[in-house]
UniProtKB/TrEMBL annotation:
Keyword Transmembrane: yes
Native organism taxonomy: Bacteria, Bacillati, Actinomycetota, Actinomycetes, Mycobacteriales
Domain Pyrrolo-quinoline quinone repeat: 151-363
InterPro entries per record: PQQ_rpt_dom, Quinoprotein_ADH-like_sf, WD40/YVTN_repeat-like_dom_sf
Membrane spanning residue stretches: 38-57, 69-89
Keyword tags: Membrane, Transmembrane, Transmembrane helix
Any single Pfam family the record assigns to this protein: PQQ_2
SUPFAM superfamilies in UniProt: Quinoprotein alcohol dehydrogenase-like
Protein name: PQQ-binding-like beta-propeller repeat protein
Organism per entry: Nocardia halotolerans
Ligase listed as a keyword: no
Amino acid sequence: MIALLGLVFAGQPWEATAVWSEIRENYPFSPRLPMADGAYLLAAASVVLALAISFALRKIPHLLSRIVGAGIIAGLMVSVAVGVGAARLGDDAANIDRSLAATADASTAPAGISDEAFRITLDNDDFPERGRHIEIVSTTTGFIVGTRWGVVAYHGMTGLQRWHYQRTDQGNSELYRLDHSLVSTDDGRVVVATWHRAGTIAFDSVTGEQLWSLPSSDVYHDFSPIVLPVALLPRSAPKPLLRERHASNVIAAFDPRTGRQLWVSDTTVPDCGVKQTASRSDGIYVVRVCGDRSAGIAPWLHITAIDRRTGATIAAKEIGRDPRANPGGLSFSDYRVVATSSGLVVEIRPARLVNDARVLIVSAPDHLADAQVVAVEGLRQVNAASDGGTELAITWAPQSDDYRSRHYARVPRLFSGAPASLGPPLANTGAVRDLTPMSQSPPFFLADQLVSLAKADASRAPKDARIHTWDRAGREYASIDLSYDGYWDVDDAVIIPSTGSVLVVLRDTDAGEITVIGIR
């Protein structure tokens, strides 16, 4: 403030304007600005000075005394106004509205779905222009949507807004919320988000209360989030808050309610490079590709199970390091970790064949050492996995001498992981050629159903979508049609199971809006 006033008095007000714009755009407001404290001190000193001068005014001409008195009063008013305004700008609590937060009760994810419950329309301008994703995490009372400037909490059963934290757009501001920074943890009781240049803030998901904050310079930001797959958040995100260091094998854990670092673990394995970290409710699994094909060393997989509470290694397993243990010619550099909230399911592709992929199913971290790779004849892809991998939804291609038949005859089936057995094809497979029509939305298991999102018919018209469900006990098929009056591409739609309902997110770029449909 002193520098700004100095530029003004020096006859360079345009420079003061540029400096002020830089401060507004690139520096976060502190909870208590020095500018506000200085203004309050100035006001207090002015009051004392005014009392002293009031006695001296009796000895000067009446007109002059009025001029001096008016100047004193004006100075007092300016000081108070600057102090109040600065404190208001610097008060981060002004960004949050928790007026409805106490009205929601905790609920659970639906066991099954049948009808539409609510629709929410959001302004497309409130979300990042980069990419087409929208960040939604599940909490104990519903779900939270991450916007460009903040986070908004909704009730999972009614779709009503409960609380929000929204920073004000200052125009070309760099204080936006970072993409992919929204994380639900502590079993959905805590939500964490990070703002560019302003650091990280953790909120109580039920009340909206700010639990802790860390500046962007804190060691916390040397790590990136490790989260469960979006489709599994309702039954996920236990303690602690997990993060991994960029371009390294170091994993760190933080207390979700205090931000304090709990442990750090280096998971480096010699001769192993590319890794994928899978956070699960029962532990952390680190899957790596080892070996060097260019040096004549065939690749193999190394998997480590880590305790979430301590960071200690529970078990480790190598698959395919001995060439004699790989009679099927599996390509261990071509693998995929399937989304599941507990346990680990890894699909391993053959080196040359279209079908006959194999599956590693780990029901719990301490079962890793004894887990076996299961061969499923005709397996094309694992589409979904239940908790612990006890049941899988797969795309199965029947064996045939004709290559085209092998490639195109895809049938959705269920596969029991323990004990391993191939179930019958899913009902109404004529309407569902396979279970992966949506690149952003793989199918998932609820407690009583298998759920998949696809186009309402085989045409390419991007108008309506259909939710396919299969009862996990009786295998009965049902569908839920979703209609929308605008223009949206079903291939960009997203379906997310959340607390209280299953959410379908549609983005209409022509209308400039995002629609969230709740299904119960």
